[in-house]
Amino acid sequence: MLDKILCVDDDPITLMLCKKVVERVEFAKEIITAKNGEEAIQYFDKIFEERKVNDSIVYPKLVLLDLNMPVMDGWEFLECYMSKDYQNVFSSTRFIVLSSSIDPYDINKSKTYPVIGFLSKPITKEMLENLKTQFV
């Protein structure tokens, strides 16, 4: 079981479903949510600052990320995350794109980031059961 994951999606129903499935499968102890990429970056900015004084602060090891969102979409989030060089501080954080898009362009583009999977919405119990093996 992961200590913490972050779900980033602009749809409140998708966020609620994600939380329920994660809880049912006992995939993570804590589920943080953000409505868009900007909120997610603000969250990482906050824990980045907290880790400067306390490096035992638990951070998400997995981010479930939607691509199409207002304010800051998933691609913009990944670009911003990479430009801040958070990979050094949050070295074990991985991303899974959870999208309604099955566009081959999006799938290929995701491979240029620390994305370990590209899954179609909605997230299911079976998807999380398969992911568990990657995080054990």
Q: Secondary structure elements and their pairing?
A:
Layout lengths: L1 E7 L3 H14 L2 E7 L2 H17 L8 E4 L8 H10 L10 E6 L4 H7 L4 E6 L4 H8 L4
Parallel strand pairs: 1-2, 1-3, 3-4, 4-5
State the gist of this model.
The protein has five helices and five strands. It has 136 residues and is an alpha/beta fold.
Describe the structure.
The protein is built from five helices and five strands; from the N terminus they run E-H-E-H-E-H-E-H-E-H. By secondary structure, the protein is an alpha/beta fold. Strands 2-1-3-4-5 form a five-stranded parallel β-sheet. The termini are close together.
User: Largest beta sheet, briefly?
Assistant: 5 strands, parallel
Low-pLDDT parts are: none
Mean pLDDT: 92
The helical percent reads: 40-55%
Descriptive terms for the model:
globular, alpha/beta, 41% helix, 136 residues, 5 helices, 5-stranded parallel beta sheet
